[in-house]
Specification:
Layout (H helix, E strand, L loop, with lengths): L7 H51 L3 E6 L2 E7 L5 E3 L9 E2 L5 E7 L10 E3 L6 E7 L2 E7 L5 E7 L6
Antiparallel strand pairs: 1-2, 1-6, 2-3, 2-4, 5-7, 7-8, 8-9
C-alpha cells in the first residue's frame, strides 16, 4: 500500500516559489519607498521656489526653518511675529523622508548661525542647501530668476 504525502522535490519546489514571492514583495516595497522619497525631495524643491515667489509677489517675508527630521515655513504677520503656515497649505510643516538628514546650508556664500531660518524676501536669497539621502547627497541651489535646481551627488562607497 502506498503512503500519502509530499515528496522532497515537491516540498523544495514550494519553498523556492515562496522564496521568490517574498523577494518580489520585498523589492516592491523598497521601490515604493524609494519613489516616495524621491517625490518628497522633489516637493521640497518646488516649495522652496514657491516660498520665494510668494514672498516676492506679496511683499511679505517667508522663512523656512530646517528642524531635525522636518522643515517648517513661517510668514511675518502684521505685528512682526513669525507665524507658521496652517496645516493643509502647500507651505505647511512637513517631515523629511526616512533616512534623509540636513547636511549643510550656505546663504550668500556663508554659513548662517545655527538654527537660523532661511528668509525669502523681495528677491530669492542665493542659497546652497544639501541633504544627506540614502546613497547620495541632494543639493538645492537657488538662482536669481527665482528657480531652484536639485542635483544628485553620488556618495562613494554607498550602494543605491
Amino acid at each position: 500500500m502506498r503512503q500519502r504525502g509530499f515528496t522532497l522535490i515537491e516540498v523544495m519546489v514550494v519553498l523556492v516559489i515562496l522564496g521568490i514571492s517574498v523577494t518580489a514583495v520585498t523589492f516592491s516595497i523598497e521601490g515604493l519607498q524609494a519613489r516616495e522619497t524621491e517625490r518628497e525631495l522633489q516637493r521640497l524643491r518646488l516649495v522652496l521656489e514657491r516660498a520665494g515667489e510668494r514672498a516676492a509677489v506679496r511683499g511679505t517675508p517667508i522663512a523656512v526653518e530646517f528642524l531635525p527630521g522636518r522643515y517648517r515655513f513661517s510668514q511675518l504677520d502684521a505685528d512682526g511675529h513669525w507665524r507658521p503656515f496652517n496645516e493643509g497649505e502647500s507651505l505647511s510643516e512637513r517631515e523629511l523622508p526616512e533616512g534623509v538628514r540636513w547636511a549643510d546650508l550656505t546663504v550668500e556664500g556663508r554659513r548662517p548661525e545655527p538654527n537660523s531660518p532661511l528668509v525669502f524676501g523681495s528677491e530669492m536669497p542665493q542659497f546652497d542647501l544639501r541633504l544627506s539621502a540614502p546613497g547620495n547627497l541632494r543639493r538645492y541651489i537657488s538662482h536669481p530668476d527665482g528657480s531652484v535646481t536639485m542635483e544628485t551627488i553620488p556618495v562613494q562607497g554607498a550602494s543605491s
